[in-house]
Amino acid sequence: MFITDHIILVLLWVLFGVLHSMLAAGWCKRFMQRVLGRKYKYYHIIYSLFAAITLMGILVFQFTMPSRLLFTLPGWAKVLFWLPALIGLAIMLIVIRKYFFSLSGICVFYKQQLLPVLKQDGLHRYVRHPLYFGTLLFLWSLFLLFPYLSNGLACIVITLYTLLGARLEEKKLIALFGEKYVAYKQRIPMIFPRFILPPD
């Protein structure tokens, strides 16, 4: 049962990633647009709700399943790793708050639709995908604070999916913004910042 639970956890995270990418893919959106017609404008918010509900379900399973403690950190190390965990969480909240209107899909309920804009200010001056960086920083710091096998497996799957998903998203952004994004891509790292102020 112990091994089975961990295999199920890995499969759930993989399935979540596959569904997330598939439902966000251009071919799937075009198909749903043909199927839903005028109601397609609600697709994004339904997709966001589905992602949130399935994510919560996986997290409940992960944090309630029995798992093995892989190692134990001394007290001073635990205090130390809370700092990057909080920084990662803060980055996630800043980005989500900034893009909540478009990410959640609630913009469909407003008459004014925002056009896509290539952001190069704020956190985007240091990294092209600050949400991914904040998420990975938070997750791996949390794993070091709570080093259970279940958390480690989740971190590995999420990291692999994030790296792959970021590369797929890059193709969409290049198609959307063209040479402007290519130039931005050459100046700014994708996920892991250099921690230096890039030249204007």
Instruction: Please outline the major beta sheet.
Output: none
Q: Topology as H/E string? A: HHHHHHH
Q: How many structural domains can be distinguished in the coordinates?
A: 1
Content-based structural category: mainly alpha
- N-C termini distance: 56 Å
Number of strands: 0
Low-confidence runs of at least 5 consecutive residues: none
Shape: globular
Number of helices: 7
Helix share, percent: 55-70%
Percent range for β-strand residues: under 5%
Query: Compute the gyration radius: what is it?
Result: 19 Å
Mean pLDDT: 87
Keywords: Membrane, Methyltransferase, Transferase, Transmembrane, Transmembrane helix
GO molecular function, one term: methyltransferase activity
Protein name: Isoprenylcysteine carboxylmethyltransferase family protein
Transmembrane segments: 6-28, 40-61, 81-110, 131-164
Characterization of the model:
The chain has 200 residues and is an all-alpha fold. The longest helix is centred in the middle third of the chain and has 29 residues, at 75-103. It has one domain (2-187). α1 (2-24) packs parallel to α6, α4 runs antiparallel to α5 and α6 packs across α7. The chain has 7 helices and no strands.
